[in-house]
């Protein structure tokens, strides 16, 4: 039990650390870009499910089958776009604050072969339309793209830092307390 608590605590500490790095990047104005999003060198994109113009998209299609839930489409665009005059590569970035759209099944959307006997489908799409104000941290490498302004990203980062470090610390204390209790009471439980 104490090992499970320790592992979960480590996961929360990592969450806190990741958001701490994002929060620190906000203080480095050289790594922060804000402005409206515009298509990059490859031109405007079209979202696969809705056909809406966008500078970035992510789509996911899942099917419920007799053997369980199966994701058969999970892709995001990789084409760079421009924010505040800077070319942003979205490839390895966390995209924050994008609204999810869901779509009903349609013959125009991808489907599994009938042999897989799907019971139901779920289609989801996330897009960043042209002209949307964005905040980008670390535009040239791994980083963050957010629909929030810099102060909104800062508040979100502080919230997740507190959740990550606070919960991780609490779970670590519980794991240590449980291990001590288990060690002290080992062999003495027959008294109870």
Describe this protein's structure:
- With 192 residues, the chain is of the alpha+beta class.
- It has one domain.
- It is built from two helices and twelve strands, in the order αββββββββββββα.
- The chain has helices spanning 2-27, 150-185; strands at 32-39, 45-46, 53-54, 56-65, 68-76, 81-83, 86-88, 93-96, 100-103, 120-128, 133-137, 143-146.
- The strands form three sheets. Strands 7-6-1-11-12-8 form a six-stranded mixed β-sheet, covered by helices on one side. The protein has a four-stranded antiparallel β-sheet with strand order 5-4-10-9, with no helix packed on it. A two-stranded antiparallel sheet has the order 2-3.
- β11 and β12 (143-146) form a beta hairpin.
- α1 (2-27) runs antiparallel to α2 (150-185).
- The two termini are 21 Å apart.
- The chain crosses the membrane at residues 6-23, 160-181.
- This is E3 ubiquitin ligase family protein.
- Keywords: Membrane, Transmembrane, Transmembrane helix.
- It comes from Actinomadura parmotrematis.
Layout of helices and strands, plus pairs?
Blueprint: H1 2-27, E1 32-39, E2 45-46, E3 53-54, E4 56-65, E5 68-76, E6 81-83, E7 86-88, E8 93-96, E9 100-103, E10 120-128, E11 133-137, E12 143-146, H2 150-185
Parallel strand pairs: 8-12
Antiparallel strand pairs: 1-6, 1-11, 2-3, 4-5, 4-10, 6-7, 9-10, 11-12
Helix pairs in contact: 1-2
């Amino acid at each position: 039990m104490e090992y499970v608590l320790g592992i979960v605590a480590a996961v929360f500490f990592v969450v806190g650390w990741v958001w701490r790095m994002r929060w620190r990047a906000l203080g480095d104005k050289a790594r922060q870009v804000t402005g409206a999003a515009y298509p990059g060198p490859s031109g405007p994109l079209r979202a696969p499910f809705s056909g809406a113009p966008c500078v970035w998209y992510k789509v996911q299609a899942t099917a419920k089958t007799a053997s369980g839930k199966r994701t058969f489409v999970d892709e995001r665009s990789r084409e760079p776009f421009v924010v505040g005059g800077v070319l942003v590569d979205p490839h390895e970035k966390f995209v924050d604050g994008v609204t999810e759209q869901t779509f009903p099944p349609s013959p125009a959307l991808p489907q599994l072969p009938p042999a897989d006997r799907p019971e139901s489908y779920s289609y989801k799409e996330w897009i960043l339309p042209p002209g949307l104000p964005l905040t980008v941290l670390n535009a040239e490498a791994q980083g963050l793209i957010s629909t929030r302004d810099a102060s909104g990203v800062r508040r979100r980062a502080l919230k997740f830092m507190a959740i990550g470090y606070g919960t991780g610390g609490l779970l670590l204390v519980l794991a240590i307390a449980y291990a001590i209790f288990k060690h002290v009471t080992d062999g003495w439980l027959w008294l109870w």
